[in-house]
Specification:
The complex is a heterotrimer of chains A (285), B (314) and C (612).
Chain A lengths: L17 H6 L2 H18 L1 H5 L30 H36 L1 H15 L3 H12 L3 H28 L2 H8 L4 H13 L1 H23 L11 H8 L8 H29 L1
Chain B lengths: L1 H28 L4 H6 L5 H11 L5 H14 L12 H36 L3 H16 L2 H15 L15 H35 L2 H8 L4 H38 L5 H10 L3 H29 L1 H4 L2
Helix pairs in contact in B: 1-12, 5-6, 5-8, 5-10, 5-11, 6-8, 7-8, 7-10, 8-10, 9-10, 10-11, 10-12, 11-12
Chain C lengths: L6 E11 L5 E12 L4 E5 L6 H8 L8 E9 L2 E2 L5 H7 L4 E4 L13 H11 L5 H14 L5 H4 L9 H13 L5 E5 L7 H18 L2 E6 L2 H7 L2 E6 L2 E7 H6 L4 H9 L49 E2 L5 E2 L2 H5 L21 E13 L4 E13 L3 E5 L6 H8 L7 E6 L2 E2 L5 H10 E4 L13 H11 L8 H11 L16 H13 L5 E5 L7 H18 L2 E6 L2 H7 L2 E6 L2 E7 H6 L4 H9 L18
Parallel strand pairs in C: 3-8, 3-9, 6-7, 7-8, 15-20, 15-21, 18-19, 19-20
Antiparallel strand pairs in C: 1-2, 1-4, 4-5, 9-10, 10-12, 11-12, 13-14, 13-16, 16-17, 21-22
Amino acid sequence: MTTLAPTAPAAARRPRHPYLTALATARGRTGLALVGLVVLAGLLAPLLAGHPPTDQSGLTLAPVGTPGHPLGTDDLGRDLLSRLLHGIRADLGIIAVAVPLGAVLGCLLALAAAVHPAVDTAVQRAFDLILAFPGLILALAVTAVLGPGRLPVVLVIALAEIPVFGRLLRTGILAQRSREYVTAARVGGTSGRRILTRHVLPNAADPLVVQFAVSLTVAVFLEGAMSFLGVGVRPPEPTLGAVLSQSMPHLAQAPHFAAGPLVTVTALVLGLSLVAEALNREIRR
Amino acid sequence: MRGHLLRRLPSALLVLAAASVLAFGILRLVPGDPAAVLAGPDAGPEVQAAIRDRLGLDEPLPAQYLHWIGGLLTGDLGPSYVIGGETADLIADGLGATVELTLGALLFAVLIGGTLGVLGATARRPWIRGAVRSVTTAALAVPPYVSGVLLVLLFAVLLGVLPAGGRIPLLTAPDLGVQYLLLPALCLALPSAAVLGRYLEDSLRRALAEDHVRTATAAGIAPRRILWRHALPHALPPVVTLLGIQTGHLLGGAVLVEAIFAWPGLGQLAEQALVRRDYPVVQDLLLLLVAVFVLVQLLSDLVHAWLDPRIRWE
Amino acid sequence: MTTAPLLDVRDLHVSFTTPDGADLHAVRGVSLTLRRGETVAVVGESGSGKSTTALALLRMLPGTGRITAGSVLLDGTDLTTAGEDALRAVRGSRVGMVFQDPMTALNPVLTVGRHLDEVLRAHGGRDRAARRARALELLGLVGIPDPGRRLDDHPHQFSGGQRQRILIAMALAGEPDVLLADEPTTALDATVQDQILTLLGDLTRTTGTALVLITHNLGVVARTCERVLVLYGGTVVEDGPTAEVLARPRHPYTAGLLAAVPRLSTPSGTRLTGIPGSPPDLRLPLAGCAFADRCPLAEDRCRTAAPELTALTDTVRAACHPAAESPVPLPPPPPPVRADRPAPGPVVLAAEGLRKTYGNRRRRFTALDGVSLTLRTGETLGIVGESGSGKSTLARILAHAHPADGGRILLDGQDVTRPGRAGLRTVRRRVQMVFQDPYASLDPRMTAGDIVAEPLRAFGIGTAADRPARVAELLGRVGLDPAAADRLPRSFSGGQRQRIGIARALAPEPAVLLCDEPVSALDVSVQAQITGLLADLQRDLGLALVFIAHDLAVVRQVSHRIAVMHEGRIVEEGDADTVCEQPRAAYTRALLAAVPEPVRPPVAVPAGKVTV
């Protein structure tokens, strides 16, 4: 019988979780820092703002650096810093509910589809149907029924994410199920439920984590676009998209009006994209 | 090829049918009497009665649905009660503008995405690959309403070289029309260009790592020829499918870009109809947009099959 | 011959950089000469550097690979310093290359005609019609029937063997002086391999093209090449005429390799000696002989001074300190001894008329067409067949991984074809399976210990507290260090992974072990270790084994009885030695004839006598 040379050094025994490795790269750290900054601003909005976001002062379109209004005021004399901070807060509130909701529903449907071929067909066609209304057209359809507001925004985002997560997980489950180690576990007596939870899902989950970060960016896009079209959160409540869309007519004389939300949206989305990319690179290795 | 089409057709028709039911349901889901909603608060009972009669609102729902579909198939969409005029005319006007915008954006997306993808997959110098990556990351990180604002600021406000909004149809005045089309098309194209670029880069890189590229290299075929005649044809089919999906996103994104650039297309019409609660127009528009998208996807599927002999012969 | 060699490789070194920045020294001073029209085999196991050497010759190293020292002289021109254009002029027109996997080596979106056309065009074929005519001629040359009709077909419309023929046609299109074939038949069935080797032999003879054949299979070497180079750990350990090297190896590694190869003539129930240990870590610098750690003859100096390749006779050279001083070849391996096997007991598993069909309404494929068999306690039933013969499907159905469409499965005389929930648990405790691919059959996220413990937990064997001890015992039983239980599969070698798979299968104390190609992904020296382990387990535990393989020689050696499968049926079944020596079915005879043997049976060549 053979003796076996120790092949792996002790450090390789309990490797650091790949996600942590991914987030520790320069890319991951930059992304986390950007996202963290924006989230912090949103969380601390009531403390940092100084004014309520809907209070109107006599000063309209005040420039940056006006005493009491560091970012100036908008066309109705509202404090732009306060509107920006509360806008971030409102945006985060929406995407923090909508994306997990869509992800969970999508995954549940994919799991249901994994149970029986008939369910699978039904779920697949449902996904096809949702996907046939690309992005904003879905938003139009939903708001046609519900009218503008916060709930339709959440619903549109969640609805748009359902087939994305659902298809991703379904593909993952199918791919893992055909792998030989799953057959091995089955022959080894492992129950169907345990195979799903212990073998298939952990190995199919990686793309979902990346998709979650990507979907958060899509959610920021959608919220902004809906506000822009006037079918988003109702004014005067600020969101990033709403502030931006209000700034449009005044762009020529007051470009600073748009600066705050422009920078914030870009930073948030860039941060999330960098995190997604870092995770994706590590997982693909 | 024909078999492939026949296999795809049923599910496309199914989606279309389901979408029509959903679009039809919208008007009926809105609280209140549809006729009263459509007529608006100022209209008298005779206007409401006319609407009710025209839409057949007194008939049972299936009959109403068939009535609507029948009208669609014969091209009779009826009048628009809120916006005014014939719905068919409104849609025809908007469709031309939206198709122009979407095709312009598609061209941009393919040109920019194609260049980025090929450069990213083949550039030897790391800084070029880094630059490509930065460009795609940036294009993906900036939402269209942000890039739209930036483009307007730069080209219309600061440089003053291009108009900030509006449209002159390309076919009536090509030179002026292009000036008006440039910014909105670019704005609409950026995210799709980035997605296409990334996907093509990935697909091309994998194709270049295939064994058959090694075979070609060992046979003494020049790297340039291997890239264009061997790797690219192998990488392209899935990219075409993605292009179909991206065309749908362009259609959806057009709604937003039209609002930013005051482009008088279907998106503007939809927004107007929605804000003014002209539900029959919304209903027709939704179905039209879904139908176009389903058709585009079907087409891209066929092109995919045509490009990939393994599917073609199935 | 006294002419200058056509190809002269001198002291070639190739390195790769691993993802964590370490240097992997894959080729460590390989020298090789090739004369016009000569056929040379480069043989070695995985990690020996044989494929890397082949790719380095044409400067086609993938990724971070680079030539760090040495020269490759083709007719006096050094290819290691040649420019890209000069290299391109050499590739395809002076040196043609054929690769291992014909399924992926052709571009699926281009027609076969385009493939050939591209090559001809690259080498100056200006006239389109002339290129097409030449492409037709080439397809005919490599034996593609009806080439005129097939020219516009796509690769997926050809079988694996035909694709390999097309690749050979591409390699020969530029009329090269050298044909470099990297494992050209490894992915093919034995009968197809036989045809391709015949083709290569004919073509090199008729065209005068020299052949460098890279392979791990000593039988292929013996069948095809005049001369052989044996590679180990990135160095040449032995170089000489094939007949001489394979009959009287000088280097202990060559001898070990030869002893580990199962021969068709080796009777059933014998034991092969694997080479203990595992190949050297190529990241470490080489102090002495690469083989020293596994060598039975190793002396102190072997570990400190690297032996030079020195001429031992007029024709044979070897890199070995002890061999250099010994005037005689190594003693031949001891004749195979029959291990004592207990006589098989009562029938434990039986199948009657099993059927299985895959596919949908459009396309149906019958994988099993009425297969019956019996298996006794302590008995090994070998099942042999080519790809698509249904042998893997049979294993999966017997293991209840897939349901059968028809027929019966009897376990201990009870019908278990369609067991209920409780019945299935009983069947699974009694019947376990070992899988072919040691990489795909272990969950990459679970530790070795968790993998082995999984069936214990599933069947509720023992308490959670005594499971670690049981896992350690199982790992020890299959020859693994029990301390390895908390490592992930990726830190194990292929052979070690297969041991984990066997430990997992043993965990519920089964009576029947179904082994689906358990050794075909492993190197020859490791293969012998695993077959030895299975034989030990059978002796100690009284296991009934079903041993599925495509290699008749291995199957004969490990099995009591053999069933030959072809197109979903068992075409012949019987005592292992009888089936191999007096085959009745025509298919069995074809299979036997296609097996390349490394050397004629030891009895045919008495030690000490030289036959040329």
